[in-house]
Amino acid sequence: MTQRLTGRTALVTGSSRGIGRAVAQRLAAEGATVVVTARSMTPSRSLRGGREHVLSGTLEETVQLIERAGGRAVAIAADLEDPVQRAGLVDAAVDAVGGVDILVNNAGFADYSSIEDMGEDTFDRTLEHYLKVPFLLSQAVIPRMRASGRGWIVNIGSSTGLPPIRPFREYNKTSGDVIYASAKAALHRFTEGLAAEVLDDNIAVNVVGPSTAIMTPGAAALLPDDYDTEPPEYLAQTVLEMCTSPAKECTGRIAFSLHFPWSQQIPVMSLDGRIELPRREPPSWANPNIAADGLKV
Length: 297
What we know:
By secondary structure, the chain is α/β, with parallel strands linked by helices. The chain has eight helices and ten strands. Helix content is 36%, strand content 16%.
């Protein structure tokens, strides 16, 4: 462990499980004090396709994992669909740990459906989670980051936000991910634009997305059983890399989690920072719109 985030604070949304938990663990392993947040302190219930799903994982479990590895974390429950709870989250994080140097916008909602069959409520919730919430939380942290002279915002993107592979694969014909993918594409563009606006304030704004997909509790209901997913450690490492350099060196980038460490020869560590994992080459079937260096600049 290099402890390169010692003295910094981070707020990671959607961190009771999956990608958010992995990112929180990795940042904490490098010395950051991490505020983990999710809808509630108990396992989440999500309505998809008219059916309720209970998703495993809690904020308390995330805090315990971090503390057992020697890190520090504080849990704050906040429903990001509730305007009042959403508006108070950044202030609550600052009160808890003294500031927010790093914001990771990870929380999301995905309910795949064809355009013809999708309900308007699903459309609205998808855009709210992947565009409105990052907008509002970024808006809330920017003045604090500007006052401290530095900051890092990382938005969790997706290769689905890139143009689909042609000729169209069967997945694109049947997955029902069009609105999710469109929201992620908008998040990519939001990131690039915000990066320009806050560059002179030494605030870096970047996207990190899986090169393929990560099998999280939420994604398990959406991905085919035989889908070749990637371990979360590679994405968590890529997020870490985007939280260490000043904005003039690294901002406005869209990085993908297998391509970036592979091309840049960056060691990928376990979530507790203690074990170096094997180098993992991006699969040949990954979206060809991902550049060889893992970046879209």
